[in-house]
Each structure stands twice: as C-alpha cells, then as structure tokens.
Amino acid sequence: MKLHPIDWICVAVYLGGMALMGLYFARRNKDTEEYFVGGRRIPGWAIGLSMVGTAISSITFLTLPADSFKTYWLRFLPYAFMPAAAMIAAWLFIPFFRRGRAMTAYEYLEARFGPSIRAYGAATYIAAQLLRVSFILYLVALMLSSLTGVDETLCILVAGVFVATYTIVGGIDAVIWTDVIQTIVLIAGGLLVLATIVILLPGGFNQIFEIAQTHDKFALGDLVDGELVRADWSIDFSRKTIPLMLLMSFNFFLTDYATGQHYVQRYCSAASLQEARRAMWTNVLVGVPTWFFYMFLGTALFAFFQVFPEPEVVAMLDGRTKPEGIMPFFVLNYLPHGIAGLVIAAALAAGMSSLDSSINAISTVWIVDVYQRHFVKDADDRHYLHVAWIAAGLASCAMLGGAVWMLEAEGETLQDISIRLTALLGGGLLGIYLIGFFTQLGDARAIWCGIGVTVAYTLWAMGKLPLPFVLPFDPYYVAIFGNFVLFLVGFTAGLVFKRRQPLSPGLSMWG
C-alpha cells in the first residue's frame, strides 16, 4: 500500500510551509549576530521547544515505539534522569556561556585553557556532527522510502537538499522557529496514531493497559532469547542495571548541555539569562513526556496487533524483520487518508529538526572557532556571513554524501562505526568542562595529558589496542568512564603543571 494523493498534498503543504518560513527569516540575516544567535532576542519557550525538536530525531520516532513494541521499557530509563542534568545546566553551566557575547561552546575553552583546546573541541564537534547528520538523513530516507515507495537515494537528495536550503538561507531564526512547528507536528502526529488505535480497539484505551499488563510490557527489563530479563538495582558494570542506566543518562545529557554547540548556541540566542533558563525548563517539561508518550505508543501498537494480528507484524516480533517497520506499517495500512499524510509530516519533522540544528551549528563553529580565529581575523562582518553560507552548504554536501554511502554499508557495521567514532570523537569532552567549571587548576598542558590518556582508553575499550586484559564493564558505559578518566588525569596533571598565568575572574565557580 502506497500513499494516497491526499497524503501527498498534506506532506507538500507542510514542506511548503517550512520553505516559506526559511525565506521569511532570510530577510533578517544582515550580519552574523542575527544569523548565528538571532540577535539574542528569541523567547525562552521557543528555544525550549526547539531543543526538544533537536533531541527527538527520526531515530526516536522509529526506534522508541519499535523498542517498546518488541521488548519492554528499560530504554526509557535514560530519559528519566534528564531533569537532573537540566537543573545543573540551567543554574551552573548556562551563566558561563552567557558571559560576554559568546556564540559557541568552545570560546570558553580558549579563555580557560588556551587556543589549542578550543580548536580540539571545535574539530571533534564538527566531525561528530557530520557523522550524526549523515546517519539521521540515512534513517529519514529509509523511512520515506518505506512509506512512499520512492527510491532511497532520491529520498536522501530531496530531503537533504530541502533541509539544507531553508537552514542556509534562514539561519538560527529559521532553525528555531521551524523546530517549534516541527515539534508541535511531531507530537500531534503521535497523538493521531494513538487516537486511531483507541478508536479501532474494541475495548478502547483500557484494553491497551489490560493487554500490556498481561504480557508485562511495562517491565523495566530486556528481551533475551525471547524471555524477559528484569533489570535490578545492583551496581554491576558488566551488565545493564537500573542505577547504571540512570548514571549513563546523567552523563549523556550533561555532556550535551555542557559541550554541545546545538544547545549552547540556543543559550546565547535567548534574550536574557532568565529566558535561557526558561528554555531549559520548557525542554524538560515537553521533552520527557514526549519520550514517554512514544514509548507508550509502541506498547499500544503491541496491544493493537494482539487483537488484529498481521503476518508482517508477527515477523517483527519474532525477529525475522526489524521492528522499526511497525510505525510505517501502521501508518500505511490503518490510518485514514490525510491523517497518514500528517503523520508522515511528523516523521519528517523529527528528522528535519535535528538536521537543521546541526548544519547551522557546524557553520557557526567553523566560522567563529576556526575560520575567524585562525585564518581570516580582520574581515568585515559581511564576509563572515557569506563564508557561513558556504560552510553550511559544504556541511550539507558532506551530509548527503555520507547518507548515500551508508546505503551501501551493512547495517550492523554502520551502527558499530557510528558508536565507535562518536565515542572516540566526544569521549572525555565533558571532563574538560568540569575541570574548567569546578577547579582553578590546569592549562593546555594538563588537558592534553587528559586527552591523550582518554583517547588511548577509548581505543582499548573498543578493542583497538592489543592489551592482555579485557574491559571489566559493559561497553555501554565507555563514555562515562571516558569523562572520569579525562577529569582524573587532567586534574592530576594540573597539580603537576602549575598555570603559567593566573586564572581570569569568572572562568571558574571559585573565581
């Protein structure tokens, strides 16, 4: 079953609206202050919704329902600890980034540790984000192809060029305000799917809970050899337990909020410190329920197909096909015409809101932290604006090329490469900021010692160093230990290598 013309019209109207918003905001972009941080006047609630849209990509749209559909609720745990990380970021981290007129997360690193550490942070961020956007666009194309029957390569080109165009011309204003719309569309699309399930089930909403409880679908556990294995509260780094999953969540969100340009750029776009903090609370109050809802949607789909079994769905449950196909299957076969188009628009929104944020952030980091800092220091602002457009265009081309390449790669190998490169590129970055925020020790020499040891540790953790002993913990926790290693080594080296110059006021909690 393929899309009805009414669905195509809904998708076209949505895409047309996004394009018009990009063109509208293009008129404002007369300087880099507007293009990168929106004139520092964007309201906190809009920034918060934009942060939600950035975090909830097509990966979330497909994999969260698929995970709770086939297994249980263990993987919701990482999202449950997000508020704790957000609280620390709102009260401790955001003020550091809003001092002065910063545009990137890595300007702080130079002020605290020197230009080489700023360059390291900027380079690893750009490389990691290029990998991320390629992977997200690849998933968007797979989803669009399964829903529309259009060739996957063509889906990559059409979706990628469309997102790149409104992002390049519209700047951060277009990114944030289109993300606001996309977040609303994403939530509305999921609600339409759930409403359809409730209407079609003979027992309505209550039947979802009855079936879920019968099959223990809300359990905090995982599926191992077809059986439920419950997670426990022990501290055992060799497997997934509840406390360690929460710790992993805390580490992940704290890293994003302290080191991710796509978040820091939004803090700097807010009209005031109060608005920046309001953005973070909006992100929490909307983001956590949205993740919860999409997990519940997968459970609802499980209940629905227990009542209305389908051979294709049975194949997803027993492992013959991938469960990520459950949402597209339901959309194509059970949603009314028009409603299906809106849900597909929601799926597109999930992908585009992540892609546009990363493209704009890559451009900002390249101009502010690399090009203007090291290559062309004294050009007029108009020159940097034009180069920013070129940088965003080149990042978009790299995204398209990476996504097309991923079509030819094996799925498991691709995931392995993605996980390993992300760990290698981002490993320990949070540790650098924690040394900066919470101590008065260290300069570039101490941090480079920490980086060197952390890279070696990460290579060992990925099995790339021929050491006679193996990891005593699950690879799931590699990033947690990476930050710990960098902080410990950097802090110790800071005791050995005394700062050559006194620390400027305002760069540390103790300054």
Architecture overview:
This protein is an all-alpha fold. It has 2 domains: 5-408, Up-down Bundle (Sodium/glucose cotransporter), CATH 1.20.1730; 427-511, no CATH class. It is built from 21 helices and 2 strands. Strands 1-2 form a two-stranded antiparallel ribbon. A hairpin with a 2-residue loop joins strand 1 (221-224) and strand 2 (227-230). Helix 10 (204-214) packs across helix 13 (273-307). Mean pLDDT is 87; it is low at 411-415.
The structure class reads: mainly alpha
Helix percent reads over 70%
Percent of residues in beta strands: under 5%
The parts where pLDDT drops under 50 for at least 5 residues are 411-415
The CATH homologous superfamily of the largest domain: Sodium/glucose cotransporter
Tell me the distance between the termini: 64 Å
Total discrete domains: 2
CATH architecture of the largest domain: Up-down Bundle
Biggest sheet layout? 2 strands, antiparallel
Treating each run of at least 4 consecutive H or I residues as one helix, how many helices? 21
Summarize this, please?
By secondary structure, the protein is mainly α. The chain has 21 helices and 2 strands. The protein has helices at residues 5-26, 32-37, 44-55, 58-70, 77-80, 82-98, 107-113, 115-148, 152-200, 204-214, 242-259, 261-269, 273-307, 311-317, 326-334, 339-375, 381-408, 411-426, 429-438, 444-461, 478-496; strands at 221-224, 227-230.
